[in-house]
Amino acid sequence: MHKESIWSKGKRKSLDLLFPRKCPFCQSVTDGALLCDVCNKKLPYTGSRAVHKGTFGRCAAPLFYEGTVREAILRYKFARQFNGLDCFAQLMAQCAAEHFAGEFDAVTWVPVSRKRLRERGFDQAFYLARGICDIWQVTAEETLRKTVNNTAQSSLAAAEERRSNVLGVYEIREGAEIAGRRFLLVDDILTTGATLTEARRVLLEAGAAQVLCLTLAAVPQNA
């Protein structure tokens, strides 16, 4: 798994010759850069409002979930456009390093159910976590299993519906080492925080010393 991602990076230059890299946000050709100059300056960065607090504890996110950021994430999740993964991972890694440095020992992610994995073909949070860990030269640890294929959170508008929809859907993976450890829990979007709250609860009840959260984007209401 880890070797595969390193192999992919090693082939990046050759692939750029055949398929020029595009900015994941506006789709313009970047001549090899992770994102174009315009988006680099104009993306809705969270800046001083990067860390959000709630029932999920603390969650850092480099971007607000709006405009081209929202479109890029939807292309990634539902159209399988993976060209922006290294850009997403870099933004998230920088954000975590700035706000949570020294506060976690391991990186994990919020998993999708087996049924959703078969339908979608990949786990979007795992890919983000793996990209971040490649930058830090560590390995993302699988700690959670999703045991219920519940209704997609994106289809629920009310916060209470979202909270009840995720109750009891996660469990600790057999053999996972949790007790006394400090985790960085990765997901794609912070909306109401219901998913992160439940996943974090399961890790803490299993003995985790601390669970911090990290997403690529957060809806502006979490500012």
Question: What can you see in these coordinates?
Answer:
The chain is an alpha/beta fold and 223 residues long. It has helices at residues 2-10, 12-18, 37-42, 67-78, 85-100, 114-120, 124-136, 159-166, 194-205, and strands at 51-54, 57-60, 63-64, 106-109, 144-146, 170-172, 182-190, 210-218. The longest helix has 16 residues, at 85-100. The protein is globular, with a radius of gyration of 17 Å. Residues 1-12 have low confidence and may be disordered.
Layout of helices and strands, plus pairs?
Blueprint: H1 2-10, H2 12-18, H3 37-42, E1 51-54, E2 57-60, E3 63-64, H4 67-78, H5 85-100, E4 106-109, H6 114-120, H7 124-136, E5 144-146, H8 159-166, E6 170-172, E7 182-190, H9 194-205, E8 210-218
Parallel strand pairs: 2-8, 3-8, 4-7, 7-8
Antiparallel strand pairs: 1-2, 5-6
Q: What's a quick, concise take on this entry?
A:
The chain is of the alpha/beta class and 223 residues long.
Largest sheet: 6 strands, mixed
Q: In angstroms, what is the radius of gyration?
A: 17 Å
Structural class: alpha/beta
Helix tally? 9
Helix content: 40-55%
Mean pLDDT: 88
User: Roughly how many Å apart are the termini?
Assistant: 35 Å
- Uncertain spans: 1-12
